[in-house]
Amino acid sequence: MTDLFAVSERLAAKEQSTGFELLTATEQVFHTVWWFEAELNNGGFDQFFFNSRGNYAAQTIAALERIGASTTANIVKRACAMFPDSTPSPDWSTRQ
Question: In sequence order, which ranges of 19-91 are alpha helices (DSSP H)?
Answer without folding.
Answer: 25-50, 57-66, 70-80
